[in-house]
Design a protein that fits this description.
This protein is of the alpha/beta class. The protein has 13 helices and 17 strands. The longest helix has 28 residues, at 371-398. The protein is globular and about 75 Å long.
């Protein structure tokens, strides 16, 4: 019996090493990784540049404390500021912590201005912002809230895509709108461009902040550095994580200078967040993500993946019901139970994928995936659907 909490429905499969878009089990079996540790391993496995940065940093100072200046953190923060809307950055260990910082920043901004009653945040059904008490309240999913006592107050929820419903929720207490430009866990739903622009306009009209959760959809996954760039808008606060560390625990909250300036000593903190080791790796990830042609490659591979999924939908219309997502954050709403299909892909076809809400199969390959990798994944998906089709025909024959 495991000594660990039973909070995960774990497969018994364990991996020994990785290379590029493949993981190798303890018996040496290769698996095509379209899971990426849930969008974390953006640069794949065994990336030489990241390994080199980790080795070099490990021979220096691993951790001090944020009471001291951390040069690698300063450098990473400045590079993020130089390449985004933001003027200030706070580093965390995870996406949930980045969201907690974003929520606190939004609320504290209005408190510092003397608008102490403006603390309420409009969020959206189908969202996922993390597993802390604050972030489960922000998402409002009953499945995640149940059993943990009264939910943290100050959040109201609308269905994504309905601007009138959002505006109807605005009161004198509203301080911000919080949204994922592409919902991941909730079902791989990409927000329409006009909806994102409409949210920005509502925030401008009512003096509210637009807070984006780009933990899963950011850092190049949609073919731009951040997913909100597709709609041409600029947020006030943004939470990022997952791909930012390429597999090393790291997250960040980015904000405009005017919004962040109330976060003075004593308002927020982190023991580990942004330590020298994490930021050395974060800088190594950024070296490659910001390299010329990187985003163009992701965009092109996202288009190729979308084309292959369209072919699958035409070939298996009874099983491939709807295509969702953006770039290399792709979703397929399928007819077979998604958990069983994920297991079939893993056990019979040695391909790793992830389920999401509404019976959606989520495909999250490393951003370095090639056209050959995508074609291989499409072939494995087709083989899995063919097997289900054969089984269905066989069941009818024997009935």
């Amino acid at each position: 019996m495991s000594a660990l909490y039973g909070t995960y429905a774990r497969s018994e499969l364990a991996f020994e090493r990785g290379e590029g878009v493949r993981l190798f089990s303890q018996d040496g079996t290769p698996f095509l990784d379209f899971h990426s540790g849930i969008a974390v391993n953006a640069l794949g496995h065994g990336n030489p540049h990241l390994i080199g940065a980790l080795k070099a940093a490990s021979e220096k100072v691993w951790h001090t404390s944020n009471v001291f200046t951390i040069p690698e953190q300063e450098r990473l923060g400045q590079r993020l500021v130089d390449n985004t809307f933001a003027d200030s950055v706070f580093f965390t260990n995870s996406g949930a912590e980045a969201l907690e910082c974003a929520i606190k920043t939004a609320r504290h901004y209005f408190w510092a201005k003397g608008e102490t009653d403006r603390y309420e945040i409009i969020a959206f059904t189908g969202s996922f912002h993390g597993r802390t008490l604050g972030t489960i309240a922000a998402a409002g999913n009953p499945h995640y809230v149940e059993g943990f006592g009264p939910a943290l107050t100050g959040f109201v929820h609308a269905a994504p895509g309905d601007l009138k419903a959002v505006e109807a929720l605005i009161t004198p207490n509203t301080c911000a709108i919080l949204i994922e430009p592409v919902q991941g866990e909730g079902g791989v739903t990409a927000m329409p461009v006009e909806f994102m622009r409409g949210l920005r306009a509502l925030c401008d009209k009512h003096g509210m902040l637009l807070v984006l959760d780009e933990v899963q959809c950011g850092y190049g996954r949609t073919g731009k550095f951040f997913a909100h760039e597709w709609s041409g808008i600029v947020p006030d606060v943004m939470a990022v994580a997952k791909g930012i560390g390429g597999g090393f625990p790291l997250g960040a909250c980015l904000a405009k200078g005017e919004v962040a300036k109330s976060m003075v000593p004593g308002t927020h903190g982190s023991t580990y967040g942004g330590n020298p080791l994490a930021c050395a790796i974060g800088n190594a990830v950024l070296d490659q993500v910001l390299a010329p042609g990187f985003f163009a490659h992701v965009d092109a591979m996202g288009q190729r993946l979308a084309w292959h999924l369209q072919q699958l939908q035409q070939r298996f219309p009874n099983y491939v019901l709807e295509l969702r997502g953006k770039g290399l954050l792709a979703g397929i709403k399928i007819a077979p139970p998604v958990r069983e299909f994920v297991a079939r892909l893993r056990d019979d076809h040695h391909m790793l994928a992830q389920g999401a809400g509404e019976n959606v199969l989520r495909l999250l390959p490393p951003l370095i995936a090639t056209e050959a990798d995508i074609e291989e994944a499409a072939n494995k998906l087709a083989a899995a659907f063919e097997a289900i089709e054969r089984e269905a025909v066989g069941a009818k024959t024997t009935a």
